[in-house]
């Protein structure tokens, strides 16, 4: 049992086991978020409230503890998944992969600190939140470079077409670019037929988080099974 825990922590599991592990994390976080939102004193909407409102002591007095604990645990549980991705992508450029690994694990720690320090502690909350979101954003885009490079070097491994790699990263970058454009767009240019809340930050923050996890899922699905990579190296 202890050996299996060590294997998971080091990111050395099989692709099937890692898929189950990552799925449990996402489902668990989703359930905790839904429960926390149900305990919100008013109807919670991603159009009105930022993500961290779920863990706010004043905004969510009944549900903040559950959500904050969930964030702390999720940040820690994501570390092995980052190590798994790093282990599968380090063949072409070990030093670059290690730099991404440090950045992504720092982002995981940032997630935990978001739960440790609710938004009632402004600087202690906002800085880790930025580290978490943008740490994942930059590490994911650097993973794209590793994916393409490793595909070129491992010609015997069955990889999807290169355009599919780029396709995975489109939603994440569209959200980031869209948020920048949103912040620069004068209110007089807003489309009146669209709910004005769409132009506020909360729905874009939620879109950012969701696209981060979808991109991590896409990378995981693209990566070949480590067993197949080992067989190719020893062949």
From TrEMBL:
<keyword id="KW-0472">Membrane</keyword>
<feature type="transmembrane region" description="Helical">
    <location>
        <begin position="96"/>
        <end position="117"/>
    </location>
</feature>
<feature type="transmembrane region" description="Helical">
    <location>
        <begin position="123"/>
        <end position="144"/>
    </location>
</feature>
<feature type="transmembrane region" description="Helical">
    <location>
        <begin position="165"/>
        <end position="184"/>
    </location>
</feature>
<feature type="transmembrane region" description="Helical">
    <location>
        <begin position="204"/>
        <end position="223"/>
    </location>
</feature>
<keyword id="KW-1133">Transmembrane helix</keyword>
<feature type="transmembrane region" description="Helical">
    <location>
        <begin position="20"/>
        <end position="40"/>
    </location>
</feature>
<keyword id="KW-0812">Transmembrane</keyword>
<feature type="transmembrane region" description="Helical">
    <location>
        <begin position="65"/>
        <end position="84"/>
    </location>
</feature>
<protein>
    <recommendedName>
        <fullName>DUF998 domain-containing protein</fullName>
    </recommendedName>
</protein>
